[in-house]
Each structure stands twice: as C-alpha cells, then as structure tokens.
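The instructor's notes for this session suggest beginning with a concrete chain rather than abstract definitions. Hand out the sequence below and ask the class to guess, before any prediction is shown, which regions might be ordered.
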Amino acid sequence: MLTHSHLARLFLLGIGGFGLYLAFFGNPEGGIALIPCPVRSVIGIPCPGCGMTRSCLALAQGEFVSAWNFHPFSFFLVALAVGVGFFPTASRSLWNRLSPTARGLFFFSLVALCLGRWIGHFFD
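After discussion, reveal the predicted structure:
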C-alpha cells in the first residue's frame, strides 16, 4: 500500500532522476516535451500551478533562480516532500500538534499566496 511517505519519495526520485538526466545529457533541442497543462490547453491561460514541473526540474539541477522564476512554490513543495518522505514520524507529529484552526489557516494561506502569485503573473 502506498503511503504519503512512499508517494513523496517517488516524487523526489522522479524529479531527481529527470534532473540528473538533464544534467548529463542537456536539454533536448526545442526544450523538454512535458505533459501540457490541461487548463491552459482548454481556456488558453495558465493555471495557478503552471511552471511547477519546470521549477522542480530546475531545482533538481541546482538552478535556483530559474526555479524561482518558473514557480516559487516549488521550494515549498520539495521541502514538504523531503519532510514527509524522509521524516514521516516528525512530519505527522508536527501536523497533529496543530489545531484544526491552525491547519485551516495554513492551507488557506498557501492557497491565497498561490492565487495571489497567479493573479500578479498577469500584470508582469
């Protein structure tokens, strides 16, 4: 059975493996062919998560400025995956110590920051 820690490790292995591949063999001509964003494909505007995959790949290659420019939330996502994947007991303990109100506020803050970044992206 897959647990949260297994999924986090798989995510990190996938991003790390793909990052190593790109580090050794370079970017193919024409860029990386990734799965296109379905929201962008249908309505023509990027979704709040657009750029996250490219950002995580840039992080795996050590290109921190590029990663930040693609999507700053990748730093949080990778840190969360490391915490859940390699320190599952500590992560669960920390989460369980938070009150339901604090958990909701944390989640609402992340959503608000992501949406704020997305809206600000249209005014660049």
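Then share the key points. The CA atoms of residues 52 and 71 lie 5 Å apart. The chain has one domain: 4-121.
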